[in-house]
Design a protein that fits this description.
TonB-dependent receptor; 9% helix; transport; 45 strands; mainly beta; Beta-barrel_TonB; 937 residues; membrane; 22-stranded antiparallel β-barrel; signal; globular; 4-stranded mixed sheet
Length: 937
């Protein structure tokens, strides 16, 4: 009887998504009298039954294998509930910095708590988001994904949910695995070995060690038709058009000449201070001589725009080494000690377009400038030239791509004791975790002194075609490139935590359980510049401000499970958090940046089973989250330039508008923290049901709703330039080190948003079909977003949304994401066919990132603001054939993106330097073949 109840409980709990794979173990020697207590992600209480139920997805090692993924980031990207994470392609000219993350509900990585064996790791930044590159796929036993807010249990960073990677344990064999993937023009490979010894039950100990290495080659933009150029021809409303995403930092270079303005009467125009107003005349000397821009460039008035997209890569190369060790030893019958240790090294090399010089001054009296610039000027401009007013912009193509190596080295160790005392389970642990990330500039960044001496002397003609430069001249430019460490970020985490749980009462309906616990965390985040950055030796780049941030936090929680009726259970959680003030040891004067904050959060959930097959569940809870240390305390730092060129915004105050560029160009960007940021709070609820039959069929639906207040965001560049009156304080100026001129720049500080609303439905259908020759298991699952909107920073009535379109945040919240997974087994063969689909959406207006013209006349401009494409549904299929050879060997052949589906064409260019497709939402590799072999002995 007990066996039947346990078996049914396990089956139901798996269908409900609530069970750890190691949930139950019957003790045969004790005649099935003892059942092991288990703990499920989302609860701190160990129990001997499975009456609780939470919206949890469980993905075990076999599911991971069938999916065909090769890394944890790939696994995360495959999940329908994941939106808003950082993808690898964003490190190519975007903000990825070699990091990849997880994000539930499109809220962002900071709201999704990532755990390894239930423990936090050092973050990838100053908050709580984890670089999931550091988690070894080969060591994963299963992944538990709690798709419900859990702040009342885990703390302030679990508003969107929890992703818990459970790694292998009690391993007593050795498994070697190898895999090779081959899309066209690139490749990747994976190798891992996992071994263990000692039987915890008979020997009293177990040690498991796992090592893996992954290698990924880069993929260049010119290797894919959809990504090879920033000059993209397309059809719209019966017109053949071209969308041009170029840069005024061109090769051959552009020249700019300042001259004094005159009115119709020929008199000089004066400003309010009685000074003569100036204007700028732009030209491309190569175009003046040859009658057209170079083949690598497009016209932009009298100047030209360089096709920088053709020079970069769309996916970076990387290597990943992971070493994981887990040891467990029995101290007594009721106590065991454990140690979990891991180390990883992730290296990514990114190559973006050659260096854009920005404007730099030239001597108008030099023969070089006279021959190449002055000779092409109109007489009126030549007559009224401003002294010292000649400058140029050049693309340093001979110096090669800007090539950066991002190296992330992480270490993580957890040591603890767990067991039972008087039928109360306990677990006490200390965690020490750290991550160091170095950015090394390999080449492509000019040394200011050497480079400027070279290009201003005329030894290298910056106005000539690149093919006309001699090998010697190209080498002269290459010799001026910087190589060395640029900066280092260090994050460290020290955590002490403990919890205990047990039964406190017996009611007619069952046992009442109580769990209590505490945690203390000390977090630090520092940024240290390399010697080259501090010396400001790279062309026109200033040294950033170093900082060393630290704060402590602690919390305590209680959880109680009460069986109200035999088939109705209520769970309540209550937690108190205090997030300490941030200190910066490198800040002069007062090193304390802000005040500490605290709050109490709660959650109530219930599960009701009217029948053995049907589960009804619901929850309501609150959340609390302090802003990250960088959002609060980071000093003003340079953050590159705007992703798109902008005209001087209409309505900008005249005292700032005078510093606008004369042409449509990119502007410098700063980012900084805000010490007065308020904590974010949330209210959220879920309700749904799951039905599970006895034939492997189940289906379920869960509605979820999250309302946040004081959410921390940064205004996008489009929002700032689109409303210069409201955001006047975000426009500032800086001195252009190339020309000495004062120019306009913008600031993107962290700000509190008044309110945001997100809601949706998670659903799944699972069924099994038996044939005479095999068994087919199918799973259809998806996430449907109903609402995703937020108040714009600084407003009380302007709501922004990216639901089903490219929003003002330059991102997309997909209405539908659906996976359909099928596995057919017959004999020793297993076939898997998996479908992944994302719904279509409305694209960004063409004029946001592009200059649009007639395809047969690039000087004939078209109003890009009225052009909005519809991006169709993006769907890919993956196939895998696996063969089990005996009990020890397995072989697999697979095809990812079976039908070689290309990314859809898009006019949104906000994710990085890629143009024509979005690397966040589509597969750039195309059809990929792979082979895999595993052997266990």
């Amino acid at each position: 009887m007990l066996n039947n109840k346990v078996t049914k409980a396990v089956r139901l709990a798996i269908a409900f998504g609530a069970v750890s794979a190691t949930a139950f173990a019957a003790n045969a020697e004790q005649g099935e009298e003892k059942i092991e207590k288990i703990e499920v992600t989302g609860s701190a209480i160990k129990r001997t039954d499975l009456e609780g139920a939470l919206p949890i997805d469980v993905i075990d090692a076999s599911d991971i294998a069938k999916s065909g993924v090769t890394s944890v980031p790939d696994l995360i990207a495959n999940l329908p509930a994941m939106q808003g994470f950082t993808a690898a392609g964003e490190s190519v000219g975007g903000g990825g910095a070699g990091i990849q993350t997880a994000s539930l509900r499109n809220l962002g990585a900071e709201y999704t708590l990532v755990l390894v064996n239930g423990r936090r790791m050092a973050s990838s930044d100053s908050g709580s988001s984890i670089d999931i590159n550091s988690i070894p796929l080969s060591a994963i036993k299963r992944v538990e994904i709690l798709k419900d807010g859990a702040s009342a249990l885990y703390g302030s960073d679990a508003i969107a949910g929890v992703v818990n990677f459970i790694l292998k344990d009690d391993v007593q064999s050795t498994t070697v695995s190898a895999r090779y993937d081959k899309p066209s023009d690139t490749s990747s490979s994976n190798f891992s070995i996992t071994t263990g010894f000692g039987d915890l039950d008979s020997d009293g100990f177990n040690v498991m060690v796992s090592y893996s290495r992954d290698e990924q080659d880069n993929l260049r933009s010119i290797d894919r038709d959809f990504a090879k150029t920033g000059f993209v021809e397309f059809e719209h409303a019966g017109q053949n058009l071209v969308a041009i995403a170029g840069s005024s930092n061109a090769i051959p270079g552009n020249a700019y000449v300042k001259y004094y303005q005159r009115d119709d009467a020929g008199e000089f125009v004066l400003d309010d201070n009685g000074k003569r107003k100036t204007s700028t005349y732009s030209l491309n000397p190569y175009k003046e001589v040859n009658g057209a821009c170079h083949t690598t460039s497009a016209p932009s008035g009298n100047a030209c725009q360089f096709d920088y997209t053709s020079t970069l890569e769309i996916q970076p190369e990387s290597t990943r080494d992971n070493l994981f060790l887990q040891a467990t030893a029995a101290i007594s019958d009721d106590m065991e000690a454990y140690v979990t240790a891991s180390a990883s090294k992730f290296e990514m090399i990114t190559r973006i377009a050659p260096y854009p010089t920005g404007g730099f001054s030239l001597d108008e009296n030099s023969q070089f400038v006279q021959d190449n610039v002055i000779t092409h000027l109109p007489d009126a401009v030549k007559a009224d030239m401003v002294e010292g007013g000649v400058s140029a912009r050049w693309r340093v193509l001979p110096g090669g791509n800007r090539t950066d190596e991002w190296t992330a080295t992480t270490s993580h160790i957890v040591a603890g004791l767990r067991g039972e005392l008087n039928e109360w389970s306990y677990d006490f642990a200390i965690t020490s975790s750290g991550a160091e990330r170095e950015q090394v500039r390999l080449t492509g960044y000019p040394l200011e002194k050497e480079f400027m001496e070279l290009v201003t002397s005329g030894q290298v003609n910056i106005f000539d075609a690149p093919e006309n430069l001699s090998d010697e001249q190209n080498q002269m430019v290459a010799n001026t490139m910087f190589n060395g460490l640029w900066d280092t970020t260090d994050t460290d985490l020290l955590a002490i935590e403990g919890k205990t749980s047990g039964a406190i009462a017996e009611l007619d309906a069952g046992t009442v359980y109580l769990g209590v616990g505490f945690d203390y965390r000390q977090s630090s985040y520092s940024l240290t510049n390399g010697a080259g950055q501090n010396a400001e030796i790279v062309l026109f780049e200033s040294a950033g401000t170093e900082f060393d941030l630290e704060r402590d936090s602690y919390g305590a929680f209680a959880e109680v499970i009460v069986p109200v009726l035999e088939n109705l259970e209520v769970t309540g959680s209550l937690r108190y958090d205090e997030i300490g003030e941030i200190t910066d040891s490198k800040r002069t004067g007062n090193q304390t940046v802000n005040d500490s904050v605290d709050d109490t959060t709660y959650k109530i959930s219930l599960s009701y089973r009217p029948t053995d097959e049907l589960l009804l569940r619901a929850s309501y809870g609150t959340g609390f989250k302090a802003a990250t240390m960088r959002q609060i305390a980071a000093p003003r730092l340079e953050f590159g330039v705007t992703s798109s060129p902008y005209d001087c915004p209409a309505g900008l105050a005249p005292e700032k508008a005078q510093y606008c560029h004369q042409d449509k160009l990119q502007y410098d960007v700063y980012r900084e923290g805000e010490k007065d940021l308020q904590p974010e709070t949330s209210k959220q609820y879920t309700f749904g049901f799951v039905w599970a039959g006895d034939t492997g069929t189940s289906f379920g639906i869960d509605y979820w709703n999250i309302k946040m207040e004081n959410e921390v965001r940064r205004l996008t560049q489009n929002q700032i330039f689109g409303d210069p009156v409201t955001y006047d304080d975000l426009f500032t100026t800086k001195v252009d080190r190339g020309t000495g001129d004062t120019v306009l720049a913008i600031i993107q500080p962290a700000r509190n948003v008044g309110e945001s609303r997100t809601s949706g439905i998670d659903w799944h259908v699972d069924f099994t079909t038996n044939f005479s020759f095999g068994e087919l298991k199918s799973s259809l699952m998806g996430t449907y977003l109903i609402e995703d909107e937020s108040l714009r920073v600084g407003t009380t009535d302007t709501w922004d949304t990216s639901l089903g379109k490219v929003g003002t945040d330059e991102e997309v919240a997909f209405r539908n994401i659906i996976n359909f997974n099928n596995t057919f087994t017959h004999g020793d063969f297993t076939h898997s066919l998996n479908l992944k689909a994302r719904s279509g959406y409305t694209d960004a207006s063409a004029d946001v990132s592009f200059y649009v013209a007639q395809a047969d006349d690039w000087d004939s401009a078209v109003d890009g603001s009225v052009i909005q494409k519809h991006i169709p549904v993006y769907m890919t299929f993956d196939y895998r054939l696996a063969y089990a050879w005996g009990d020890n060997a397995n072989f697999a052949f697979g095809i990812k993106n079976l039908f070689d589906k290309e990314p859809p064409f898009t006019l949104n260019a906000a994710a990085g330097h890629q143009v024509g497709y979005d690397p966040r939402y589509a597969d750039p590799y195309g059809r990929t073949f792979y082979l895999q072999a595993d052997y266990t002995f």
